[in-house]
Amino acid sequence: MSSEQKPILYSYWRSSCSWRVRTALALKNIDYEYKTVDLLSEEAKNQLKTINPAGKVPAYVVNGQVISESLAIIEYLDETHPDVPLLPKDPVKRAHARAIAFLVTSGIQPLHNLKVLQLLNKKEAGFGGQFAKQFIVEGLTALEVLLKEHSGKYAIGETVTIADLAIPPLIYSANRFNLDLSAYPTVNRINETLAEIPAFIAAHPDNQPDTGLNA
Prior knowledge:
Elements: E1 8-11, H1 16-27, E2 33-36, H2 42-48, E3 59-62, E4 65-68, H3 70-80, H4 91-107, H5 114-123, H6 127-150, H7 162-165, H8 167-176, H9 185-194, H10 198-203
Parallel strand pairs: 1-2
Antiparallel strand pairs: 1-3, 3-4
Keywords: Phenylalanine catabolism, Tyrosine catabolism
Protein name: maleylacetoacetate isomerase
Domain GST N-terminal: 5-85
């Protein structure tokens, strides 16, 4: 397959949303072209709007079709590349996996993304960080309870699911805000287990073509 025929992932090394998709791609051993979008560049984001009108990463281009939003991309990948399934067959477990993923991707991560923090810091210096910490802590507290109820080796039982893809980026963000994570032993245990899997290592921000951009 030529490079022109490869799927394209518009990504940014430290984007939680892009990170989740990179992990899914690595787990499914899908070869793709990585295109960096500098999220601190208005010009780059405006250019991205020709691909994704929201001007956000990730955007996944396959066969001329653009798919946006990390969980939509991941479910597309799961449907088109069913090897290494990321959604449990059991409908209850599948619902729990999605619920954990949505808790992070809709209930926690958007409240500390770059755009939100920049706006809050304009209103009051340092307020963005305080705001982010509050909602990360609240989210981690809920996540710890859910994982205690449903986890085995991984977030949902004994195989990696879509829920697990949301955990490393969240912990990475929590560490960037210097949060004490000792109150979340189940979250930490699963995160440490995931950190040993080659696909999760490959998807880590430190291992991307644009690692360190705007660091």
